[in-house]
Every structure is written in C-alpha cells, then in structure tokens.
Amino acid sequence: NVSKIQDFMRGDTGGPLGKTFSWAWRNLILTPKAGAQYAKTILSVPTHIRNFLSSGAFSVGNGTILNDPRIFAKAAKEAFGTVQVGGPRTPISQEKYRKYLELGIVNTNVRLGDLRNLMKDVRFGEGNIATDSVLKPMINTLGKKTSRGIKKAGKFMQDLYVAEDDFWKILNFETQVITRGEKYAKAGIKIGKEQLEKEVAQIVQDTIPNYAKVGEFVRAARMSPFGNFMSWPSEVFRTGGGIFRQIMKDLRDPITGKINPITSTNPMKGEGMKRLIGMIAATSAIPYGLVKGSQ
Questions:
Q1: 229 or 234, which is more confident
Q2: Is the Cβ–Cβ distance between 75 and 179 less than 8 Å?
Q3: Which sign, positive or negative, has the C-alpha torsion 123, 129, 135, 140?
Q4: Which of 16, 119, 192, 257 is the S-S candidate for 124 at Cβ 3.0 to 4.6 Å?
Q5: What 3-state class would DSSP assign to 259?
Q6: What is the share, in percent, of the chain residues with pLDDT greater than 90?
C-alpha cells in the first residue's frame, strides 16, 4: 500500500529504528531535493516562462486557439480577471474562482502539486533540522522588514506559478462553454448551464494536466531521490490519450457510430476537427514540454 509507505517515510509510523531511518531520509535526501526543486521552479524566472508556455501548448493541442478570435479574447479576459496575483481578488473574481475550484479545473498545477507534497513529506515548517532550524534564523537576522519581504516575495512567486497554469485552464473552459453551448443550441439540443459547465469541466480535466488525476504510485515517486516531478510526464501521456478520445467522441456519428467528419451528424464534429488539427500542430511543442518539465 503506497499510503502506508508514505506514512512511514514521513515518520508517522514505525518503531524507533524506523523513525530514525525516516528522519535521516527526510533530512539528508528529501529536504535538499525539495529545496532544489523549489529554487528551479518557484524562484526561477525562466521556469515561470516555460510553465506558462507548456500550459499554453495544451490550448494548442485542444484546438482552443482555432476558435473565433472574439470568443478567444472574451475567454482570455475572463481568465485574466480571475487569476489576479499580488493582491486580494475582487468579490466577483473570488466567486468565479470558487466555482472553478468546485469544478476541479484550477489550482491543480502538476509540478507544484508534487512540490507541495514533497514539502509535506519533509515536514517543512515543523521544526525539521534542515529547514526551520537553519533557514529561519538566517532570515530573521536580516530584520523583520526584510524577513517579511522575503516571505511575501516567495508567496507572490508561488501564486504566479499557479496563475500561469490556471489562466490557460480557465481560458479553455470558458472558450468551450461558449462554443459547445452554441453548437448544442444550433442543433436544437437543450442543455442547462450547470450541466454544460460540468461537461466542459470534465473535458478540461481529461485533456489538460491535472494533479488530482495523478495516480497514487506516481505521486509516491517524489519520495525517491531519482527523478523530478514524475507526475508531469505521466499527465502528458494521460491527457494525450484524453485528447484523442475526445476527438473520436466529437467526430463519431450518434446514429451510425461511424467516424467521418464529412457525413457525421454530430453537432460537435467541428470541435473535433479543431482539436485534431491542434493536436497535430502541438506534437512538436508538447514533447518539448515533457522533456523540460521532467528535468
């Protein structure tokens, strides 16, 4: 059982010998790894750029950028207004973000999910000898103002890393809510707003990397000294299959079951073709993101 192994490595279970081993593993192996990952993701400007671009590659792969520019611009405005960074959100954007959270499409950054759980594994902030007892005194010697500034800067960079991912997920969601809603209406198919949003949210979860979808075994790989952010490549493979399945679903004729974009009576066949074209176009960008994201 993977969860039992995780509990043991965190020092939650096991006898005196086992807890001594897990303490040494956390402090001597996992803590340096967590620190290195934090530095190369949250604190790295080039990685922020790569994070934004790799997330955007999935908008290409899903054909989102092939939609009507007016719809794309409207969705982008909606996304940008919701993922505010560096200050409190407006009441309206807070309400929207809560809705996106309930739908499971935001705050699901795969690499950050690995890092957060790794920080939890090493008991970051719980008196761990390799973190609090070393880093806190060093920061405190700089004075309260500087100390607060460092903490605020760290939080800002983390919020920014999440926002870079959330922006594209919200954009994909809002774009597809509009386009699929219009397709249903044109075909004379009645569908409620809530039902439509749940349908699109599921598509976003299936076609864009989402930490909530990462398997338990892959998540546990973060506790190994080998490899970084193992959840990312696993999600790239999962969503690649998800994009292909969604293409087939949108192209399949609901009556004959045949997949023919010309003769199909499926009202979503246009969406399927856009996603197919986008997937072909993205085959050069997504493998690059896979390689870079797993480094």
A1: 234
A2: no
A3: positive
A4: 119
A5: strand
A6: 38
Confidence of residue 295 (pLDDT cuts 50, 70, 90): low
For 11: left if phi > 0, alpha if psi spans -120 to 50, otherwise beta; the answer is: left
Q: What is the pLDDT of residues 185-229, one digit of tens each?
A: 999 999 999 999 999 999 999 999 988 888 777 777 777 766 667
**Gap between the Cα atoms of 108 and 205, Å rounded:** 10
In a 3-state reduction of DSSP, which class is residue 157?
A: helix
C-alpha 235: how far from chain center: 9
Nearest to 239 by CA among 269, 270, 282, 271: 282
At 2, which amino acid appears? V
Number of H helices, E strands in the chain: 14, 0
Rounded Cα–Cα distance for residues 79 and 81 (Å)? 5
Which one-letter amino acid corresponds to residue 203?
I
CA atoms within 13 A on the CB side of 51: 25
Are 197 and 103 within 8 A, CB to CB?
Answer: yes
User: Residue 211, class by beta-carbon neighbours within 10 Å (0-12 exposed, 13-18 middle, 19+ buried)?
Assistant: buried
3-state secondary structure labels for all residues of 161-177: HHHHHHHHHHHHHHHHH
Q: Would you say residue 166 has pLDDT above 80?
A: yes
DSSP secondary structure letter of residue 252:
B
Under the banding of pLDDT at 50, 70 and 90, the label for residue 159 is confident
* Residue 19: C-alpha distances to residues 3, 16, 104, 148, 278 (Å): 16, 5, 36, 34, 50
